[in-house]
Structure formats: C-alpha cells, structure tokens
Write a structure and sequence with these properties.
This protein has 123 residues and is mainly alpha-helical. Helices cover 52% and strands 9% of the residues. The protein contains three helices and three strands. The longest helix has 33 residues, at 50-82.
Amino acid sequence: MGRSVCIVCGKPKSGLKVERDHVIEAISWIKRNITKNELRSELVVCKECFLKYKKARESYTRRQILYVALGIVFTITLAALSGAKAPFAIIYGLFLTLLLYLLSLLGYVPSVDIPKLKSDIKQ
C-alpha cells in the first residue's frame, strides 16, 4: 500500500484503518480495471476528523436501516393488497427494496477497524 489518506479531510495522515468491504472492493476494482487510476492509498480516519466521521457513519447506518425497512413494509403491503397477484407484487417489492438499498449507498460511509483493548479479549 502507499501512503495513508484520511477519508474525511483527504490529507495524508495516520489514523484508524478503514475496513475493506464490498463497496470499497467494488470501487477499487473499477479504479483498477476501468479507469486505470488506482492510487493504492491506505484509507484511514485521522484523530482530528473522528467525531465528524462518527456522526456521518451513524447517519448512514440509520438511513440504510430506514430504507430497507421501508422497502420491506412496502413489499408486505403490496402482497397483502394484491391478492391473487401476490407473486408479482412480492417480486416488485423486493426489486424496490433492492433499489432503496442501492440508494442508501449514495451516502456511503465505510466502517473503521477499531482495535480492541487487551483487557477486553477473553483468553
């Protein structure tokens, strides 16, 4: 990996490492294979930006849960109201739930790897 870059302020700093999940892997794949512009920087959250990061992450998590819950409620409502056409309503509702989940990724904030204290680890 290259230098450490804070995902909040964009400056080269050290801090808590960002966990590599499916979204970051997809972005890296696109940058590596399509745009040919991968910087290979290690993504971190610096100490100064942690509070701003924490608020953004909590907001993203709440929004994601809300969108998926709305999609599930909409799917159940469609299935209940459609009667004999329930399979199509369920498929449509699941498609809508997937769309809402993808919309929640517009405000994506990755999680960070917070090291555990030695006293918390049970041996």
